Amino acid sequence: MRQILLLLLLFLALHSWGQQPDTLHIATYRYAANDRVDNLRPFAAYLGERTGIATSVASYPSPKDLIAAMQAGKVDIGFINTFGYLLLTTQERSVMTPVAALNVRKGASDNYKTILLSSKASGVTDAGTLKAKAANLSLLLVSEGSTSGNLVPRMYLNSLGLNDPEKQFKKTAYGKTHAQTFQQVAKDEVDVAAFGSSEYAKALAADSTLLERVNVLWESEEIALGPVLLKKSLPGGLKKKITKELLALHKRRSPALESIKKGWSEAAHSERFIRADDRHYDAFRNLMGDPKALRVLLERFVN
Q: Which CATH code is given to the segment(s) 114-219?
């Protein structure tokens, strides 16, 4: 009798693991005033048509909040940034898996990079003076959950021996958006700032006198765009179907793709979704040179 009961419980568990959902819950995270819900709605409507399953779209205040919702089983399809995905991989047991990411058009340059600037008044002109004068400098990053405006600059600072900016700089703060962060260093309100390089390129094209007010200390390599994640417990056939629709979105429903791209400025040069698993982010992980140091850095933002 006990064996029959165990077999029954196993059957029920396996059945529920691959059960077709009544609704596909699509979720992302907010950036400044944009919750990106409207950016994802055309894709949600398209996916509902293609799968015959109702869809919903939700947005969470930050990548960390999105991760918490994923781990709680509230998300079937997640659109997350690179930093958020790497944070997710620090979880002991992740319920999500990456399947696709937006590509970067061949020939596109300066698509998604970090730039580190100093004000001319700070006297910081290179990495050496940055490290030497750190204790007397104010540092401004973008936001805790930003890849190009927090994770990547911290990776670079770590390579200089500045592995704890909150303690090693006179002051470390967040500017909330890339534009606001840039404006503060351009106006000499902070000594050093890091943010997405496209913000600086746009401003420089409009006003070449910026060269007289700021120094470029460092610019990163291209950053891999964040993945689309699927809940592991979705039926295998459904996961394949969703992945297939993402990969063909540029052909079958290009307005939905364009709407997604408008929600993420770093995706401006993307043409389509490409397949992406965890290995897709190995090159980015290696930017820091030491996987253990990267994990230590990531774990600072887990809780």
A: 3.40.190.10
Domain ranges of the chain: 2-107+224-288, 114-219
The pTM of this model reads 0.87
Q: Using alpha carbons only, what angle is made at residue 120 by residues 117 and 122, rounded to the nearest 5 degrees?
A: 85
Query: How far apart, in whole angstroms, are the C-alpha atoms of residue 300 and residue 235?
Result: 34
Q: At what angle do helices 152-159 and 291-299 cross, to 10 degrees?
A: 130
Residue 237 CB contacts under 8 Å (≥ 6 apart), including other chains:
none
Write the pLDDT tens digit of every residue in 165-197.
Answer: 999 999 999 999 999 999 999 999 999 999 999
Per CATH, the number for 2-107+224-288 is 3.40.190.10
Supply the DSSP string of 51-78, one letter for each residue.
Answer: HS-EEEEEEESSHHHHHHHHHTT--SEE
Beta bridge partner(s), residue 99: none
Q: Is 114-219 the same fold as 2-107+224-288?
A: yes
